[in-house]
Amino acid sequence: MDGALEAQYAIATGKLLSLSEQQLIDCSSSYGNEGCSGGLMENAYTYIKSAGLDQESTYPYIAKNNACQVPLEKRSDGIPAGEVTGFHMLDQTEQGLMKALADAPVSIAMYASDPDFRFYQSGVYSSKTCHGRIDHGVVAVGYGTENGEDYFVIRNSWGSSWGQDGYFYLKRGVSGYGECNILEYMCVATLKSH
């Protein structure tokens, strides 16, 4: 989710920030999220709307739940409170996602517990067993067609050593909620005008 917001903010302001995932883990529980056990994008955006979000360098990632480390009134070196004015959910269609991608990357949820997906290295990913309950947040950044095969380009959060430098291609044109249910839950932040 941070990756989509970082891109939206950079497009709106010309400032590229690296935002703190750890702050969302530690501080958004009163908004309905559950730290490392998961949460919802709309809860995170609601938290950022009221509290802002620090940069990664100020509030670094430690990969575990922790108490919120920054007093609410001091969160200002990243995206300030009020910069995110809300969010909206996208229509659950490929066309809706593609239209949104014309403006900025999109936060999406997907089913990522398919064993084959964990070991993805390259190519357009497709699996007959990738249709379980959504359980992982990623960022859709684009789409394309190669050798007659349509795909979305998606940035994962598992680091640059996974997949294709941290990205993967996911098959487009799959009915229902799409491959790995990526069309089920798509959310875009709304930023104040600049």
Keywords:
single chain; 194 residues; alpha+beta; Cathepsin B, Chain A; 2 domains; 7-stranded mixed β-sheet; 5 helices; 7 strands; globular; zymogen; cysteine-type peptidase activity; Peptidase_C1A; Papain-like_cys_pep_sf
What does this structure look like?
- The two termini are 21 Å apart.
- The protein has helices at residues 2-13, 21-27, 41-51, 94-101, 115-118, and strands spanning 84-89, 106-110, 124-125, 136-146, 149-155, 167-171, 186-191.
- The chain folds into 2 domains: 2-87, Cathepsin B, Chain A; 90-187, Cathepsin B, Chain A.
- The mean pLDDT is 90.
- The chain has 5 helices and 7 strands.
- A 7-stranded mixed sheet has the order 1-7-2-4-5-6-3, sandwiched between helices.
Shape: globular
Succession of helices and strands = HHHEHEHEEEEE
CATH architecture classification name of the largest domain: Alpha-Beta Complex
Biggest sheet layout: 7 strands, mixed
- Please, how many domains? 2
DSSP strand count: 7
Look at the structure and name the CATH superfamily of the largest domain.
Cysteine proteinases
| CATH topology category name of the largest domain | Cathepsin B, Chain A
The amount of helix comes to 10-25%
Name the average pLDDT. Answer: 90
**Quick one: CATH class of the largest domain?**
Alpha Beta
Q: Counting H and I runs of at least 4 residues, what is the number of helices?
A: 5
Strand order of the largest sheet: 1-7-2-4-5-6-3
